[in-house]
Amino acid sequence: MSTHTSTTAADALPVPARSRWQPLRAGLVDLFYYDREEFWFRDGRLLLRGNNGTGKSKVLALMLPFLLDADLSAHRVEPDADPKKRMEWNLLLGGAYDHAERLGYTWLEFGRVDDDGTAHYCTIGAGLKAVEGRGMLPPWFFVTPQRIGAGLELVDHSRTVLTKDRLSAALDGHGTRFDRAGEYRRAVDEALFGLGTQRYGALVDLLVQLRQPQLSKRPSEKALSAALTEALPPLDPALLSVAAESFRSLQEDREELDGLRESQSATERFVGVYGAYARVAARRQAAGPLAAKGRARGLEQQLLDAQTQYTDAEGQAEGARDRIAEAGDRIATLRTQDAALRDSTAMDAARELDAARAAAREREADADRIAGEARESEATRDRLADRAASANDALAEAQQRLHGARERASKRAGAAGLAEGAHDADEAQRRVDAQLRALDRVRALAGDAALGERTLADARRRLDDVASRADAAESRIASARRAVADEAESFTDSVRTHLSTTRELQVADPAALFAELADWCDSPAGRGTVAAHLDAAETGAREQLTARRAGLSAESSGLRTRRADLEDELVSAESGEDAVPPVPYTRHPSPVAGADSGAPLWRVTDFAPHVTDAERAGIEPALEASGILDARIASDGGVTHPSAGELILDPAIAPESGPSASVAHTLAAVLVPAADPEDTAAAALPTRAITSVLDGIGLGPDSGHSCWVAPDGRFRMGVLAGAWSKPGAQYIGRGAREQARRGRLRRLTAEIAEIDAQSAALGEQDSFLAQRLTTLSAERSGAPSDDAVRSARHAVVALQNELRRLHEERDTAADAVEEAAAEHRAAAEALHADAADTGLPAAPADLDRIRDALGDYRVALADLWPAAAAATAAKEAYAQARDDLGRSEEARAAATERMDDAQAAAERARVRYRTLRESVSSDVDELHEQLDAVQRLIAATETEQHDARRDERTALEARGKADGRRQELTVEDEAARAALAAAADGFRRFAASGLLDLALAAGPGVEGSGVEGSGVEGSGVDRSADGIVAFARSVDRALADVDAGDAAWRRARQRVTDEHKALEDVLGRRGDSSSMRMVDDTAIVVDVTFRGRPAPVADLDAMLADEVADHERLLTAREREILENHLLGEISTTMQELISGAEAQVARMNDELASRPTSTGMRLRLDWQPREDGPAGLAEARRMLRRSIDGWSEEDREAVGGFLQRRIHEVRARDAGGTWLENLGEALDYRTWFRFVIERHQNGRWRPATGPASGGESALVVSVPLFAAASAHYSSAGNPHAPRLVMLDEAFAGVDDNARAKYLGLLASFDMDVVMTSEREWGCYAEVPGIAIAQLARTDGVEAVLVTRWEWDGAHKLHAPVPVRAEAAAPPPPGQDGLWE
């Protein structure tokens, strides 16, 4: 998909010109719109330019820093960090790629050259694969010394991209494939940089920051500070992990203490709540007997009242029965009168008059109803007449539309090849479907014939192409076989020449090597013979040299240790310190307590002037060997052992007397008191004590003392005797000590000089061995490679496989030609036969015309059938309207006739009623008045009788209620007496539960209890029901101020339940427990088990308080231990090193800035200063962290420890859910405490560089420090040959041409390699010594990128050659030059 402006290939691949690694080439294989594309660098620089949309940033994203980072995340790959851009798009092109999956590679080649001209190469790359519907598959990576196109191919001869496994085979021991990004990053770092995991990650982060689009257009000091901050190394995670584990353990201890405190707090709360509950419960329990007693008294009075009510109700019932009987007699008399009136003749006439009136009213109602029906019939007839007229008009219009539709359908049927239009819908549809099927069949046959013709032509072209390629392959095979023999001979000569020049790399059996090499060259497979022999020779030589170096290193280490000890002793001697007698090996090095009181003998004495040097050289060794020299002299004259503290000489025991016992025979004859005034203990010792000791030690064996020393070095200490001598006295007397110090200085200086000479000699030997190892490595790495022989042999095999495949492909192509010709003939014959049978043309254009006409006919039919259906429906509607109108006329006439008959009947009924009314009206009226009077009397008497019966029922009900009430009260009275007894028993049980004691514990005493605040049991209270009631009344009075209402009771119970849950939870977490039980289902009693034993709730508080105090003491000690061992130990030491290292890094950056001034003369520097919003106390902590920890005072240690602890507490409080490792990583991340500030030297002062400036100056202000940071990173790399690579995307946006030249000049000044993109920049400035330029161009709709290559050599812009393709080694087939280019 990629194209070029030239097809002239370069003569050779680019070669390195620098001693450090520089990028030489980069390439894409089957990625984006590229098949295979290479981009060559010039002097380590490459510019990708072109209009927006050409994909220059895409090329940068696919190469750098991805090949250093190995992270597919969009925010790392894409320069603009757009999360919508996915790597799979670069393979599948958003669905525009022809296949469902795609595999490609991106790679970058570095090169360097040794001083002797030996070139070294390192190629890094990544394989990418995406599958439609699955997205990106895991990528793989490789690092190899091989070069793409010269020993390593990523595309085989069939133009197929190598899979992951085939890549491993292609590397064949000359490189490594990695499936994990971390391992690949580590390999890249080791091969090129040598920074280590942390600093390499910081470098990649810095490069990502530098690659931000239009960096110069958006200068940000904050972003710059963040980028530089991330470039600093953090604390070692392993160190933090150890500290985190300690803090986690400490946190567990704190949590345990918090649990204890929580238990104590919960206990305190519960005791308060439980006591309040007990007081409420006690008052309510006391209310039980009192209420029962009051109820019993109330029931006695109610029983008397119920008996009175029963007697009164019985009398009222008897009076009501008398009134009922009297009313019944009066009602019987009145009913007799009523019956006599109703049996008279006047009553018959009244009944006939009522019947005539009812009949007249009925006839009038019928006449009104029938008149309404007649009016409704008239309205219906008028409405139906209007509808019939409308239906007639619709029928005429529908018949006219039907006629027009029939004419159009007939015309279009002829054009569609149908002889006559059908007037039946089903028949018409069948004819249309048949014609369509015929058209489809003929059209398909025509398509088959055309396809067969094209297939035949394609098959013939493929046959010709395969035949020509097979002929070309045969000629290439012969050339490739000759190349194998030539390469084998050349390789053998190169090996022989190389072995003749090596000094360190010596093969044990060269004859066997060349014999095996000859066999291997005949069939080069597997590991090369030469490599195996050379590796064995190198391994043996290296082991010998390394073993010798290890011995030298051990010897040097011992000398260094000895020299350090001597230097310490020399410093002590030079400072004037007195030498201290050495501690004998038989003595314990640590004295017991009190053993070091007083002053040693040698500190408080001196030799008398008359004592000779020879005598001094005997007396001091004798004192030293006997243990008296450094024995401690007390103020009372006692002498104690210097380490054991045991008394050696007791002043209370006088020395043995003898003939020679005098001062001349004691130590006082040769030693005099002379306490060292600079020694406080010695100066405080009384002279008499010293004299007493000297008098108590004899001088010589004839002194008569059990403890003596002699001038010849002999001594005796009780049963212990011996002798020792030295050249002279060293410790007794200032003169002796000073002379000994000078001698010690001379000896130490001489010994140090001798050790330095020995170390120098060992260093020279080690340097010689290191040079030999370097020579060995150079001789091994400089050995000829068998890649050319392998490649030549692989080329033969590949060409043979290709030829075999081409022969098979040619046979297949010939068969395909014959098959295509037969299929084409059969398709043409079938087409003409079917066209003749159906009467249709064979030409596709004629068939299309008929199909269009058939469509028009179907449209006409679609109009015809609805028109016909509409006409039929209109006709039916008109007929129905006429029928409805006729029936309506008939109904109207019948209704008029019925109305006349009904009005006549009504008039006749009215006449009859009036006639009867006039004849009998007076007799009927009098009869009705008499009947009404009798009925009124009957009703009044029945009312009186009803009231009497009601009164009777009321009286009987009252009597029954009174009787029932008597019985109920009798039962209730018995129950009340039982309830009173039960309440008394319940109160006794409540008191026995202990709750009553708890309730009365803090209150006044209870009358009659016998014991203040006690319960019933054992208190002397009358235990009868009346006695319990009296006691309960006393309790109620004592708790009168307690609210014992239902609401208070519910609250108290709820609070006890809630607080008990809390108590149970906190106790349960520590293995303790608490439970609740009910007393008579009314009172709650809580039992606590603490440490496996029952414990009263009140005592639990004190027990927990003791445990809290113990844990607090242990926790304080644990915190101090962690503070000393971690925060003030390893972490502070490491942080001191890191902060010092950061300040040194800033200094290196500023040195870089100072050594590389800009062409404008602008001077910049970086200041690493504490943040304004940094942690409190940072300034003081930083000051102390700059000093050695050994020099810290106790106040300093507390200040630093407090600062670090505050940081940890702040982070922990903000993120309590995080792990301790995460919290410590954030709290102790010293990088976040500081920020980088850019300063500019202006008017003789350093000022902030963030003020107003031109676009060019702004670009320099933000870019130069980043360049300096990158340069400082590279300069501190462990590999002295590390590359110095940066990436810039649209770096010059908003910058004028003059500033661009200076900007690019800075890259050269900082010795930076660069890959950059720009829309219009060429980079052709005098400040730029050289740069490769790739001009990218794209056209919409064309899936390819045009790449035009240029180079700037510092003075001229020239066309650059097209990079060599891998297949360029073999010429294309004849007549196909440039076919695939």
From TrEMBL:
Membrane-traversing stretches: none
Region spans: Disordered: 353-428, 943-968
Comp. bias (Basic and acidic residues): 353-386
NCBIfam families on file: TIGR02680 family protein (TIGR02680)
UniProt cross-references to InterPro entries, sorted A to Z: CHP02680, P-loop_NTPase
Name of the molecule in the record: TIGR02680 family protein
Stretches of the chain forming a coiled coil according to its record: 296-337, 789-823
Bias type Low complexity, positions: 387-398
Lineage: Bacteria, Bacillati, Actinomycetota, Actinomycetes, Mycobacteriales
Signal peptide positions on this chain: none
Alphabetized SUPFAM superfamilies for the sequence: P-loop containing nucleoside triphosphate hydrolases
UniProt keyword list: Coiled coil
